[in-house]
Amino acid sequence: MQMSNPYLTRRNDSAAIVARVDPVVYEESITQGVSEQQKQDYAKNGFLQIDHLFSAEEVKYLLDELHQMRQDFAVQQRPEAIIERESQEVRSIFNVHRLNEVFKNLVSDERVLNVARSLLGSEVYVHQSRINYKPGLHGKEFFWHSDFETWHSEDGMPRMRALSCSILLTDNSEHNGPLLVIPGSHKHYISCQGETPDEHYKKSLKKQEYGVPDGSLLEYLADMGGIHSCTGLAGSVVFFDCNLMHGSNSNITPFSRSNIFFVYNSIDNQLQQPLGGIKPRPEFIAAREDIDAIQPNNLEL
Amino acid sequence: MQMSNPYLTRRNDSAAIVARVDPVVYEESITQGVSEQQKQDYAKNGFLQIDHLFSAEEVKYLLDELHQMRQDFAVQQRPEAIIERESQEVRSIFNVHRLNEVFKNLVSDERVLNVARSLLGSEVYVHQSRINYKPGLHGKEFFWHSDFETWHSEDGMPRMRALSCSILLTDNSEHNGPLLVIPGSHKHYISCQGETPDEHYKKSLKKQEYGVPDGSLLEYLADMGGIHSCTGLAGSVVFFDCNLMHGSNSNITPFSRSNIFFVYNSIDNQLQQPLGGIKPRPEFIAAREDIDAIQPNNLEL
């Protein structure tokens, strides 16, 4: 991979912007759960929001499960749980599709899984899963980043053939720190400065210090594509390309923001060795073993 | 004042919410620059936004002056300049209506001054002035607060008969940390816990530790009034009541947010002694000496 790698990053030379060489929508035989128009929008913008994909009852059921898990994990000090530095609250829990029956069923729900299969043009597996809770009043911002830049360098994901799916469990308004994206930014790869230290993930999940894109390159992307807030009611789902530049502002409103986050990767895009000889991140953050294609179900939640 | 003070705060008993006893719009003889409908909206919501009050040429002229001042003050280490902790950039400069000829003229510009005189129903003077610069990429959030709660306790402002006027010098979108307000919150007074230490202002202008409203009371206000973003193009002006609950989220966009901020106070509402026997804040933050009514002008900027 290193020889012909079009996506070099985390080196000590200067930051750079290079063109994406991979497709965004992979044209293959699977087309379910997504229209041709939606495919075109996704190819152009790098994201696709589908409103009302889950009912109010399902949202309530999932949100209750999320809060139950946060409560259980608050006392357990497990590595899958990310604790907010100031408030000591559980902000995220990783690996929920293996740790919890409800989320295990959800990850193969055809409403989300088929969209991933159709856009990535192949069978897929789950690279990463988590639940996120951004508290009201003191929710912190999360700086701009391309997930692929991290997955490529720290996990050895070879190509841009993965996507994220964020299932909104609370209403996301313009006020409570919604997902911000730069439309079209997925067509450009921002290589970041600085070699990754070993076990960087233990810190980076709280505050990113490597893999931070250069400010003037961000300005260049934002001047081209503008900035879009993925606002929507609970039950909406946002799918976005692995290389889409995204982040979020803080949340001083009293209204918390919760979602479930699945990353689907093509079975043809399995992880290799991380860049720069660093140690691979653990299975609960980046799957290397549990990589069988998952089959869609239409179970009632 | 202490005997009959309806707005006690900064004490060690618990936080409280009490009804405002003062008018919002003071019905007197002056009515210029604002319609009856606008007065009613302001009375109900606690704020009033007037778009396009300054032309694009005027905005450019004012923004150039703001940047020139920031540059001059960056090297001077003057107390009027508030430096951002992380970036070491000049975030705010106080007292600009005395330090700078352009802003001295602007503070008496009839387009803003007459709105203040009409809403406060009397002649007014400038309690405080400043320019604000919220940088792109790393602009920090500012937590909810009522200005009056601070001015009452730390400056001894007796009554709610003052307003702020924010002149937007860059476009404020939903993305770059615009002013957030809770409509209707100005009708309620949130008393805050904790006695103010002396010289608190030296810290509080960077990060508020006293005068922070209770989270459940904020939720109560937001459930009643919702949350509104004061978004608008450069040249718009937002007038808001001294007791309106407001704050702003962070700004990770590459687009900075700059404004000029004047506080007009009724000449019938001059400062008394601060609560709790603390030392008054300096003249450049809270005017005690320079309190003559200012007369409107219609000079070209």
UniProtKB/TrEMBL annotation, chains A, B:
Cofactor annotation: Fe(2+)
Subunit structure: Homodimer.
Keywords, sorted A to Z: Dioxygenase, Iron, Metal-binding, Oxidoreductase
InterPro entries: EctD, Phytyl_CoA_dOase-like
Similarity field: Belongs to the PhyH family. EctD subfamily.
Organism taxonomic ancestry: Bacteria, Pseudomonadati, Pseudomonadota, Gammaproteobacteria, Moraxellales
Role description: Involved in the biosynthesis of 5-hydroxyectoine, called compatible solute, which helps organisms to survive extreme osmotic stress by acting as a highly soluble organic osmolyte. Catalyzes the 2-oxoglutarate-dependent selective hydroxylation of L-ectoine to yield (4S,5S)-5-hydroxyectoine.
PANTHER family linked: ECTOINE DIOXYGENASE, PHYTANOYL-COA DIOXYGENASE DOMAIN CONTAINING 1
Catalytic reaction(s) noted: L-ectoine + 2-oxoglutarate + O2 = 5-hydroxyectoine + succinate + CO2
Single GO term (MF): iron ion binding
Organism field: Acinetobacter venetianus (strain ATCC 31012 / DSM 23050 / BCRC 14357 / CCUG 45561 / CIP 110063 / KCTC 2702 / LMG 19082 / RAG-1)
Protein name: Ectoine hydroxylase
NCBIfam families (UniProt xref): ectoine_ThpD (TIGR02408)
E.C. number: 1.14.11.55
